[in-house]
Recover the amino acids of this structure.
C-alpha cells in the first residue's frame, strides 16, 4: 500500500503537523510531496515515480472539490487521469515513513510547478 493510500494513526499530541513534507514509498519507487491543512489532510500532493522522478500526480483538494460540485463524474475522471488522485484522510504518522522530511514552501512550490507543467504538457501531447 502506497503512502498516499495509508491513513497513519500515530497520535498528533506530541508532534506538530508541518504544512509541507515529503516521504518515499520504496514498494512503488515514489517520492510523495504534500501540503497539509491544520488537521493533517492533503491540500495538494505531488508524486514523482522512478529514478527520473517522473510526475504521476499533482492534485489539489480545491480543484477536486470544485469538480465534484460542478463537473460531474466525467469531469472528475478526466481530472484524475491528468493529475492523479489526491490522498484521502489525515496523514498522521508520516514522520515514520521512509525518507520523511519537512520541506520548505519553496521546495514544495517548485516541485508542484514542475509536476503541473509536465502533466499539462503530457495532456496536450495526448490531445494533438
Amino acid at each position: 500500500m502506497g503512502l498516499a493510500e495509508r491513513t497513519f494513526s500515530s497520535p498528533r499530541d506530541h508532534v506538530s503537523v508541518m504544512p509541507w513534507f515529503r516521504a518515499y514509498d520504496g514498494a512503488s519507487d515514489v517520492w510523495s510531496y504534500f501540503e497539509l491543512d491544520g488537521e493533517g489532510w492533503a491540500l495538494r500532493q505531488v508524486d514523482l515515480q522512478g529514478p527520473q522522478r517522473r510526475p504521476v500526480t499533482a492534485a489539489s483538494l480545491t480543484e477536486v472539490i470544485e469538480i465534484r460540485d460542478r463537473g460531474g463524474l466525467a469531469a472528475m475522471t478526466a481530472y484524475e487521469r491528468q493529475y492523479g488522485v489526491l490522498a484521502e484522510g489525515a496523514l498522521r504518522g508520516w514522520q515514520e515513513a521512509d525518507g520523511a522530511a519537512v520541506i520548505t514552501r519553496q521546495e514544495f512550490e517548485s516541485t508542484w510547478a514542475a509536476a503541473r507543467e509536465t502533466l499539462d504538457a503530457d495532456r496536450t501531447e495526448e490531445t494533438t
Remarks:
- The first strand starts at residue 20 and ends at 25.
- Residues 105-127 form the longest helix (23 residues).
- DSSP finds three helices and five strands in the chain.
- Confidence is low (pLDDT under 50) at residues 4-16.
